[in-house]
Fold these 2 entries.
Entry 1:
Amino acid sequence: MAGVRGYFHPKTATGGSSLIPSPPWHYSGDLVTVEYRTDPARVAELLPEPLALADEDPGAVALIWADWQSCGSSKEELLDPVRAQYKEAFAVVRCSYRGKTYSRCVYIWVDKDFAIARGFHQGYPKKLGSIHMTRPHPYGPAPRIEAGASFGATLAAADRRLAEAVITLREPAETNGFVNGHPMAHHRWLPSIEKGKRLALDELIETGSASFEAGQPWSADAELALFEAPTEELARLEVHELIGAYYRQVGVSWDGGTLLETGTSGAE
Amino acid sequence: MAGVRGYFHPKTATGGSSLIPSPPWHYSGDLVTVEYRTDPARVAELLPEPLALADEDPGAVALIWADWQSCGSSKEELLDPVRAQYKEAFAVVRCSYRGKTYSRCVYIWVDKDFAIARGFHQGYPKKLGSIHMTRPHPYGPAPRIEAGASFGATLAAADRRLAEAVITLREPAETNGFVNGHPMAHHRWLPSIEKGKRLALDELIETGSASFEAGQPWSADAELALFEAPTEELARLEVHELIGAYYRQVGVSWDGGTLLETGTSGAE
Amino acid sequence: MAGVRGYFHPKTATGGSSLIPSPPWHYSGDLVTVEYRTDPARVAELLPEPLALADEDPGAVALIWADWQSCGSSKEELLDPVRAQYKEAFAVVRCSYRGKTYSRCVYIWVDKDFAIARGFHQGYPKKLGSIHMTRPHPYGPAPRIEAGASFGATLAAADRRLAEAVITLREPAETNGFVNGHPMAHHRWLPSIEKGKRLALDELIETGSASFEAGQPWSADAELALFEAPTEELARLEVHELIGAYYRQVGVSWDGGTLLETGTSGAE
Amino acid sequence: MAGVRGYFHPKTATGGSSLIPSPPWHYSGDLVTVEYRTDPARVAELLPEPLALADEDPGAVALIWADWQSCGSSKEELLDPVRAQYKEAFAVVRCSYRGKTYSRCVYIWVDKDFAIARGFHQGYPKKLGSIHMTRPHPYGPAPRIEAGASFGATLAAADRRLAEAVITLREPAETNGFVNGHPMAHHRWLPSIEKGKRLALDELIETGSASFEAGQPWSADAELALFEAPTEELARLEVHELIGAYYRQVGVSWDGGTLLETGTSGAE
């Protein structure tokens, strides 16, 4: 008996229906990053056991927009681009675990189902959203990647705008920011199917890129606004002070992570 | 220390960002059901250990379209209907487990993220799709629920049409079909975050309605067509013989299920 | 030579590509109506020559949500419902023309292209939007059409929420409101393709239903909020005083209108 | 009395609600072009009086995908990119008018309302569609613009795929094809609001770019497939022989056109 196959559901005899192929997954994309400081208590309240606030600059937040093309190892999705292209916006904070600093995505919105599925696997707490980013272009009115060029980035979900930013490039920079620069410490959680029981899945994992290439990062000036919505708490990460903003084009591969511990988050 | 809260991700201090509230979940909706026979081998290949083909009519399939409004116990989603309304189309087969007959959803497409999240929890292998159903209406050209009335139902995903049906109501019926009439035997699967390791989650669960009310079911004549697509295998469940078709309006509540066994599916 | 055919573009040898069929067009739908008073000057500024403010209650506005299924005389769209179903939200005021009171739609958002095309023809100034309305249902948590039942209605465009209402049914009513109860006085405008020339099309037309059937209207209490957006002016029609709210199910046919005059609007 | 303002509807006191600003309009974008020969009779049947088949290669068709960012003279849309970005796919043929060769768009699908409105103005017979194109990128798995790089392009409307192409770049080319290289001869048509009357608008116009800059065109090998759909006739332009394929990045401005004649198309 062959059994059902497929990296993800739906599992079938061939595996050909799986919403996502098995890793490695490859990505080409552009990133708009805006880093700012919020009240560290607002970061701390998003960190379950055994995570703690980062030692330095614990209130730092990165709000990142990304415009991706992604694929599995066959790369076939790239030629049927409805299956490759997606955009996302996500908020990253840092935390401390066993004396080491990690990044952690606390909110994220994407616009395709395969991206949601990868998020379940990687511990990104994904919802659907409507994400837009100005794209650089060598001709016409769209911006080049050069000093003075401005890029807009917006996020909406459930028909409400949640965030918008405009960044204006200043000069080549040494980094693309520091908040999203560590390995990610994420939880993978799923409730028990039985009422009142403990979580069926409660894993703390570490994950990060398997390979990375990138163009010159640019530093930028930024305007950022966050908006309230009845089912969102992004705006609780209030903007107290802008740290910096960045634009960068990257190529990334992802190929699995590491299980750190299980059953310890104390999450409901 | 309060810890993070929320039935689903993202978990926060308040729990207010959770993509879905804790059960019970309540649904109002209309169902178009088309039942047909396919090659039982095509059903068998979708049943992992320890499930087996149903004893009677093992090649029976129900393809069901549903137009839902759903909510948690606060019912607040109903008044912000972008958060309550969704449509879905799904294929159900039957199977046998420990001498008992179960229904099992083998493919399903929905059009909202909260429905995808509920699917992860309930073991429905959900993807995003574009689903449309004719709605009954008491005035104008749309059909009433009465003999001779026709309803169309269509499904597309990734910009390709996958299925379409037209049903024409014949007469009041005793049932809404038999394929989706049993408790559901579903798997909840998630790969390990570590490459080459066994599944992190491999649960066989039983789930079904906590309460159910419904109007008069109607039997119907049907035309049904399934279409090929590069990432879908619905059309492998070829239509060999139509069994029947049905229209029914229902109200349903869901409030959890039962864990049957773990680690036994042998799924990759 | 046969020439190209089709009621609308694209015109072809067969006419089969036309975005809309020739009238009559038939509609089944539900209407949520909220009527309120704004500053009459805000209404007057939307009325071009030769229209003037209505004599009575000139600041009255109706904001209406509609959930439609529509079709041409073949009714084939109803069985491929992606081509039949659409939702809209629109603001209606009244005006006076040659001593007679007309209704006039000043803003409208729809969610399908065939509805946009019909709007060009009928003088409705349509944009795309995301429109949602609670639907009545006989089972489960969704409301019945009965006293105490609440319905939500929301409008967004370009990822921003523009309006939201909740109405709670009070009792059967004699009417469905008065603002949208007159023939429509609409303009059909199109700029010249040549810069600096006068409008290529500047028609004042009268249009209305060719036939109408409807269920019992219900009066309702309402909450209504309008929101600012950079490319929208709906919120300039500020809510000074709520007049009333209504729910009604209707069946409507449209079959052409009357040209009142041309070239007189003075519009840029 | 100030009168209502705005280049397009809805016209208001400020003009700020207009679905499109007044020209000039500026565009940055990438073009995938596939040129092929069909039966010239299938082209001729799409050409109303007084247009005739082009003298040379009259069965030539260009199917073009474009991924645009566009704006008016303020360029503000670029920083709120949900208002600037859109994609389109369109079929172009050539025709002869008064001894001169013109290009003519016979079918076109776009994914934003402002693009539909510009189409009404410019005589492009636009419908809504879902359009996707692989985008070049300097890092990761997405293609660079270089020999051997492959780009996919797909079109769907009303939940059905209508066309898909894959092109593989061969070498730098002298042109981006010849079918879409002439001024456009388009009709602007609108039915009378009164049944049985002649068209209210029946204009033959000439339009083209006011300015144009572009990168190196690349020639490409191509695969192209067209699919049937109940309301579309693109597939009637059957692919008899591929001519060539091209990739090019362009910057374009549009600033009005010329009225050639009125009332002569003989269109229904």
Note: The radius of gyration of chain C is 19 Å.
Entry 2:
Amino acid sequence: MPPRKADVDRVFHALGDPTRRLILERLTAGPVSISRIAAPLQMTLAAVVQHVQLLEESGLVQTEKSGRVRTCRIDPAGLAVAAQWIANRRSTWEKRLDRLEDLLSDSGQ
Amino acid sequence: MPPRKADVDRVFHALGDPTRRLILERLTAGPVSISRIAAPLQMTLAAVVQHVQLLEESGLVQTEKSGRVRTCRIDPAGLAVAAQWIANRRSTWEKRLDRLEDLLSDSGQ
């Protein structure tokens, strides 16, 4: 099933924020609790929770609560949506360049 | 030369806006003038110019003025920066999963 347009919107909106990309970079090394994500960041825990929620809603992060600790991990679905959108744009654009090149080489003969 | 951090920030900020992604989608089919980009959009020409400027500053679009017409085309550099960032995150994350799998299969023996 191709990703819905809304998913692409949510994923790129989420990736558009440097703090959220920093959180994702942190999580690529392995699951981390929200309080450990928050520790090095210059913001309130509530602000970090909001960023994580937005990442979760976009399919970029999964979270799981165990007792009082919420652990976050990468959700591969969101990155796949973004990678696919970029790959499709590049592919359309490159095919157009190939056709242009063919036209130019035909007209040069 | 690896992309500077600032470039990644600019590219993802640019891609985070649905109008700017729409403009990029339009340009993958070929170069288009700013006024033709603006025609189907529900916004002023000035607003479209601002979006295009931001896309240009991010390395996602190149523009060229000929007389009174400014033509926009895809700049592959920006999409490459975004694709590379995503690919690096996925690769780090997948390598971690592979190591985890190895550990689990070792401990199962």
Note: The beta strands of chain B are 32-33, 61-66, 69-74.
